[in-house]
Amino acid sequence: MRLENARFIISVHDPKLLPPDAEPEVAFIGRSNAGKSSAINTLAGRRRLAYVSKTPGRTQLINFFAVDDDGFLVDLPGYGYAGVPLAVREHWNTLVGDYVRGRGALAGVVIVMDSRHPLTPLDRRLLDWLRPAGRDLHVLLTKSDKLSAQAAHRTLAAARKDLAGLYPGATVQLFSSMKRTGIAEATARIAGWFGEAEPQKTKAPAEGEVAGAKKP
Question: CATH number of the domain that 106 lies in?
Fold first, then answer.
């Protein structure tokens, strides 16, 4: 699997127009401005594969990117944006809800959270919303370069503990598009969902160590 070969296929605004429900799909979702598009671009080694906007709630489409013949990366619209009309938010619930609940090809979901503000009430609401679908889940704690090694250690440990109760079986890691850390771990997880290897569970760090962060 070579994520750098990802190429744009289609944008969907109407759930009835989704492409054939066949090859494995890995969907990315996250609170607006949590770094979702940047994470996709970093994993694919591209600058503008996924559109990066500083305006929350700008992207209200499901975007599909083919990865060779292995499957698709799917960029879902951001959630939690303010100042957006109710009709737009209701459309998000229908578009993303129908996709997450009924998509047979959906092999796993990556939730992108800002490591400085993980598991916000909106993130927890999304976990509640996703749980009935029983989707495999991996969390990227983005912008980890903004934290010290000690703070990153505490954040990762706390997130792992909280997720064990909120969404059993979910895995979590630190990630930084700026420093390009956490790429190998995230790529291995996606490869597992594409059927190339068993998904790697996030390994608990040894005492004094943090996954994706250097020792002080």
Answer: 3.40.50.300
